[in-house]
UniProtKB/TrEMBL annotation:
UniProtKB keywords: NADP, Oxidoreductase
Name the UniProt record assigns to this protein: NmrA-like domain-containing protein
CDD domains per record: PCBER_SDR_a
UniProt xrefs under InterPro entries: NAD(P)-bd_dom_sf (IPR036291), NmrA-like (IPR008030), NmrA/Isoflavone_reductase-like (IPR051609), PCBER-like (IPR045312)
Length: 304
């Protein structure tokens, strides 16, 4: 199978979706953004955008015809909308589906059993079932990237707030965990599409490198000053207990338990937060980053 050139990108306006869109364009892939009809998201003028009703099955199928791949980066609350996308992609003859994943390694059973990752695991299993019918030519790739550097510094996973000078550090903060710049997430998606046979029907792990939380905090403090910080140090075992209690009490109150389980999957012992020795970076021609690179990236983030 040659490179998957024609790509339909869903969820291109979000935090990661934007980085993925830029990487696909930079790698000269033929990209079309599929957006909801009522979406107010804006895209650069040179980007082809098709606004559709995702609830209309026939419209979705027709919108996907002729595409080699679908790249999804829908938000947490829209994860289950991917079932309709997958079915439509199969019917439309799409060759590859990359679901909204980009987080922890759910091939590790301890991580997969956390409620935070159940929907993603179910999506992966559904993709596997669809890929088992060879005559359709349909396949999938899931991409895990662990912690996004940009998400930690005042982003969606705000454990370090430079302006407020507050930080939360888990389990002492000296255990290496994988961290990945958003730009590398985008490059990983492009690389998967350019290496279709190597990445067919498999889970791919990518990271920038493995660093400790204390290293990360030290860089931020160097950038903004080390005085006046309030550092909250937490034990993930206690966080796990609180999260399970919240989940069992009010499972529909997602925000009461989801953040704890996400952090447990990233920082907890035995959850595989450090991808070292298991990544496909070298196989796909993706560079890692050094501590100096991380320092430079954090400095840019803090200054902006």
């Amino acid at each position: 199978m040659s490179s998957l050139q024609r790509v339909a990108h869903v969820g291109a306006s979000g935090f990661i979706g934007t980085a993925v869109l830029h990487a696909l364009l930079d790698n000269n892939l033929d990209v079309t953004v599929l957006a909801r009809k009522d979406s107010e998201s804006k895209f650069p003028g040179h980007v082809k955008v098709v606004r559709i009703d995702f609830s209309d099955r026939s419209s979705l199928v027709e919108s996907l015809r002729g595409y080699d791949a679908v790249v999804s980066k829908v938000g947490v609350r829209a994860i289950n909308s991917q079932y309709e996308m997958i079915d439509a992609a199969v019917e439309a003859g799409v060759k590859r589906f990359i679901p909204s994943e980009y987080g922890c390694d759910i091939t590790i059973s301890k991580t997969a059993n956390l409620p935070a990752y159940k929907e993603r695991l179910d999506i992966k299993n559904y993709l596997q079932s669809k890929a088992e019918t060879p005559e359709t030519g349909f396949s999938y790739t899931t991409i895990s990237t662990s912690i996004l550097v940009e998400a930690v510094v005042g982003g969606p996973l705000p454990d370090i707030q430079p302006r407020a000078r507050t930080a939360t550090i888990y389990d002492g903060g000296d255990v290496p965990v994988s961290m990945t710049p958003a730009s590398l997430v985008g490059e990983a998606v492009a690389a998967v599409l350019q290496h279709p046979e190597q990445t067919r029907n498999r889970s791919v792990l990518i990271h920038g490198g493995a660093f400790t939380q204390n290293q990360f905090l030290s860089i931020v403090q160097r950038c903004v000053g080390a005085d006046g910080w309030q550092v909250n140090r937490q034990d993930t075992s206690e966080m796990e207990e609180r999260s399970w209690k919240a989940y069992e009490k009010t499972p529909k109150d997602v925000l009461s338990w989801l953040p704890g389980f996400v952090r447990l999957g990233l920082f907890g012992k035995g959850y595989g937060g450090d991808f070292t020795g298991r990544t496909a970076n070298e196989e796909l021609g993706l560079k890692t980053i050094s501590l100096r690179d991380l320092d430079a990236l954090i400095e840019r983030l803090v200054s902006s």
